[in-house]
Amino acid sequence: MKAEADKSVKSDKSVTGVRGFTRVRAAGASLLAMGLAAGLAGCAPSTSSGGGGQDDKSGTVRVWLFREVGNEPKEKVVDKVADRFEEQHDGVEVDVQYIPIDSRAEKIKGAFNDPASAPDVIEYGNTDTAGYVADGGLADISDEFGSWGAARALDPTAKKSVTVEGKQYGLPLFVGVRALYYRTDVFEELGLEPPRTLDELAATAKRIRAAHEDMYGIAVGGAYTYGAMPFIWAHGGELAREKGGSFTSALDAAPAKKGIRAYTSLFGDDNCPAGKCAKMGGNETVEVFAGGKAGMAIGGDFNRQAMENGKVEGEYGVVPLPGVEKGDIAPAFAGGNNIGVLKSTEHRTLAVRLAEQLAGKRTQEQLFEAMGFLPTFSDTRRQVAEREPFVKPFVRTLDAGTEFVPASPAWGTIDSSLILPEMFQRIVSGKDDVAGAAAAAAEKMDEAFAE
Amino acid sequence: MSAPASPPTSADAHAPVPGHRFRRRIRKPWRLAAECAAVLIALLVAFPLYWMVLSAFKPAGEIRSDRPVPWTLTPTLDSFRRVFAQQEFGRYFLNSLLVAGAVVLASALIAFLAATAVTRFRFRLRTTLLVLFLAAQMVPVEALTIPLFFLMRDVGALNSLLSLILPHLAFSLPFAIWMLRGFVKAVPEALEEQAFIDGASRTRFLWQILFPLVFPGLVATSVFSFISTWNDFLFAKSFIISATENSTLPMALLVFFDTETPDWGGVMAASTVMTLPVLVFFVCVHRRLVSGLGGAVK
Amino acid sequence: MSVATGGAKSRPRRTPGPADAGGPPRARPARPGRPTGGARRGGWTPWLYLAPALVVLAGLLVYPVYQLGLISVLDYTQAQVSGGEPTSFQGLGNYAELLGDPQFWNVLLATVVFAAACVLGTMTVGCALAVLLTRVRALPRLLLMLAALGAWATPAITGSTVWVFLFDPDFGPVNRVLGLGDFAWTYGRLSAFALVFFEVVWCSFPLVMVTTYAGIRAVPTEVVEAATLDGASVWRTWRSVLAPLLRPILIVVTIQSVIWDFKVFTQIYVMTGGGGIAKQNLVLNVYAYQKAFASSQYSLGSAIGVVMLLILLSVTLLYLKLLRRNGEEI
């Protein structure tokens, strides 16, 4: 039973000036048939539809960026870009606001809901791309993306992270990637070499644990999805397969299950006891390593400060996470943030141009200097790696090819309903075997994809 | 059980605290045991707080370390610096104070009137109303933010402090009304009769007699509305969208929560800074709570 | 005017009347301005007093709750809210989806048991400490009050984090002090619930303690004195004197605790990492968040909201009915 949607356009000048809101009214008849109160139709839940479509060439361009801990260096870089932009464009002002990362979901939804409060340009986490596109919040900027000179130097996964069904909805700003941290002192003491395959990794981990019973060989976490994914990808598995725009889970396929088995076999008294490790997420494994309780951990380039503050300061090294065969690098998850333009913007041209400058090579290079954010351009990245040896293993990981989460709005649901952590935790706590847990997780993923 | 026969040696016997007559009758060893228990429990309850403050002063690497000692040899103000270095921190603080203050005052007044109405008068729908008041709290707040969002937008309150004051007022009121009902009820009705016989008007009775009598209840409910408003994250991040200058303190705390790289020192320092004003507020009002009625109903 | 002295055992003087809201109010020839005592009909006066509250609550609570019911029968996600997609009528589809989910029933059961334990724990600790407060001198009283207030005032998200830190098997001091070695509290279902239970009681007993204490202060001293003179023990004084007098306050606090503990979110979410190992510690509100709100499925979320509303409403009504059967005036 579907109610006819009767759109009545009502212009609300006091709030939005020229924009109009569409109020969707459900036809009363079918509702009344369900025995609901009369007058319901008059109070249909509010909606707001985009606005936008305008393209003012002057005025204020509003930008939202994430507020990092220790945000000043970022502000300085951004201020320079904004000043330059204002110089280049007469009568244009750039207004930048910084929002806490933890409040981004509510703020950005709020911006979608109330175009009057919305900015023109936003920074957003790249795993949110498909969700925001489905919400109808991000503008399709495929044309501008195609003619953007810098786009050619972007690495393929970065492009993938702004792409939904072949269209681009943003520009990659920086990339975050994980590699293998290890304790140089412990390795030296036990005469170990950084592992070259995942099997060696497991064996090395057990040797460390055997020698130091108060240490985990490699700290792994049952809730550390992004640390576990490389194991699946390294064994040739996938999270999901796309066919004609629709996704199906591939977790219960044989290669993925091999990867899941490899990862979950690291939980146990001979490496990382399930009692303590089943619950851990990415940050906890990093904390355990930084606190000197682990021989190895999978950590990101963004975790460097935690290591420097921790007990392991000066006693750790980083290598790419190895793959199945010698010389292979396990494909890592390419996290990071993008810059997007809101559908509701009234300054489309200006907004896209500003986004291009914010995500441009020069800004990315400066952001690396200021904040340590890895550039999304392969060439820029190689240049900065020359100057800063710490990032080399991460750049090698990126160059070896990275993977991304399924570009489906369902990913948000899959992520927030913790389908993957639940699968890993069921296995490591002995509640289920790999086949059973993978099948159950695949079923839940498919349910989410179907919606 | 009777009053100690010997002249009281404890200072308490002379203390002009209302209700001392009640306490004097308790045998002293018992009181001592009770006081030891109270102090012990206080320490136990305060320990997590101590840990929070301690973590705020510890250097970053010590907060999660395998030597979890309840002290630090190298206290540092770095975490607090990161908290205060946030742009417009003072502004956030003031906004929080304004919102919480407005909610406390408004809810105390409105709830007092409403509580008097439902206690002192009998009318149709009285109990239904009371239960209805609670209904909105039975729903997950996230479910109400969307309707509230559009309501705020339509009345033009979005992005202003009013969009925080109004919902919080609405969420504090039911509890405050229910709570004050109990206190209003405890005031004997004979007192009211007496007041009317003495020729007091209803308004005069309400404000000059009843109001002071239910003050301890007002204090308790005010502490409640203050804390729940002060600590709110959800409305603060949902309704203050573009006007960051109208953000409140929890937003300054949220900055430090980042799933991949949380800054625990910053979290603890910001939380310490947030908790302090509540304690100050309480110390300011607690006299009213303690001295309360005691022997006032005489 | 020593009013309630005689009321130590019996309830304070008050005309016992049917409090049934549905029934006709007791007729009583009321002389305006000169009531003869007892609850009365006040004509327009009660409505005048109620007006501000009604305006605020109707606008900000009743309307949104009404919208909640409406949204729960529609197909309403972020795409409808802001993306310009048409809203369509879903009937009871969202409810069917929810009630047909076996996980929902498991979670509901866990929530009910956990909330009941929390309410019981909170009320017991809160009331016991309130009585304790009346028996100690000013300094210990202030200490305990400040500690409790601190626990109450700490943002839930921070409080939960600190508790997890304290009980951390690798980095926490508690296991060392208790000699528990590297016992992982969050691994077992029961121990994880127990840990959260302690935190919930820690942060919610202060409300009970402070309000109950305020209530005791409002009880005329003579009443308590009379009981103490009779030689009643602390427990008996509480049972037969204080508790009946404080019942209106205790009722409120109990109902509120039920509501809050049934809706517990932050503690479970932070302390068990979003619902525990393999979701063993899920409670209804976290379930709702993961199932609906995090991914902007407002219709399903609203349906869960409506179901929670109905459950809590019936619990509240049942509780009030029980009280009334025992002769308590609501």
SSE topology:
The complex is a heterotrimer of chains A (451), B (298) and C (330).
Chain A: E1 5-11, H1 13-16, E2 20-26, H2 28-33, E3 59-67, H3 72-88, E4 92-100, H4 104-113, E5 121-125, H5 129-134, H6 142-147, H7 156-160, E6 163-164, E7 167-168, E8 171-176, E9 178-183, H8 184-189, H9 198-211, E10 216-219, H10 225-234, E11 240-243, E12 246-249, H11 254-264, H12 274-277, H13 282-290, E13 294-300, H14 304-309, E14 316-319, E15 332-333, E16 335-341, H15 348-358, H16 361-371, H17 378-387, H18 392-399, E17 402-403, H19 410-416, H20 419-428, H21 434-450
Parallel strand pairs in A: 3-4, 3-5, 10-13, 15-17
Antiparallel strand pairs in A: 1-2, 5-16, 6-7, 8-16, 9-13, 9-14, 11-12
Chain B: H1 20-24, H2 28-57, H3 60-63, H4 78-84, H5 89-120, H6 126-135, H7 141-154, H8 162-186, H9 189-197, H10 202-213, H11 215-230, H12 234-239, H13 249-254, H14 264-291
Helix pairs in contact in B: 2-14, 4-14, 5-8, 5-11, 8-11, 11-14
Chain C: H1 45-71, E1 74-75, H2 78-81, E2 88-89, H3 93-99, H4 102-134, H5 138-153, H6 156-166, H7 174-178, H8 189-218, H9 221-229, H10 234-262, H11 266-271, H12 284-291, H13 298-325
Antiparallel strand pairs in C: 1-2
Helix pairs in contact in C: 3-13, 4-8, 4-10, 5-8, 6-8, 8-10, 9-10, 12-13
3D structure, described in words:
The complex is a heterotrimer of chains A (451), B (298) and C (330). Chain A is of the alpha/beta class and 451 residues long. Chain A is built from 21 helices and 17 strands. In chain A, helix 3 links the parallel strand 3 (59-67) and strand 4 (92-100). Chain B folds into 2 domains: 11-76, no CATH class; 86-291, MetI-like (MetI-like fold, Orthogonal Bundle). Helix content of chain B is 68%, strand content 0%. Chain B is globular. Chain B starts with 19 loop residues before the first helix and ends in a 7-residue tail after the last helix. With 330 residues, chain C is an all-alpha fold. Chain C has a domain at 103-325: Orthogonal Bundle (MetI-like fold), CATH 1.10.3720.10. Helix content of chain C is 65%, strand content 1%. Chain C has helices at residues 45-71, 78-81, 93-99, 102-134, 138-153, 156-166, 174-178, 189-218, 221-229, 234-262, 266-271, 284-291, 298-325; strands spanning 74-75, 88-89. In chain C, strands 1-2 form a two-stranded antiparallel ribbon. Chains in contact: A-B, A-C, B-C. The A-B interface holds A 14-15, 45-46, 62, 67-72, 97-103, 106-107, 109-111, 113-114, 116-119, 176, 281-283, 287, 290-293, 300, 302-303, 305-306, 309-311, 313 and B 59-61, 64-66, 82, 85-87, 145-147, 149-150, 153-154, 156, 158-159, 233-234, 237-239, 241-244, 251, 254-263, 266.
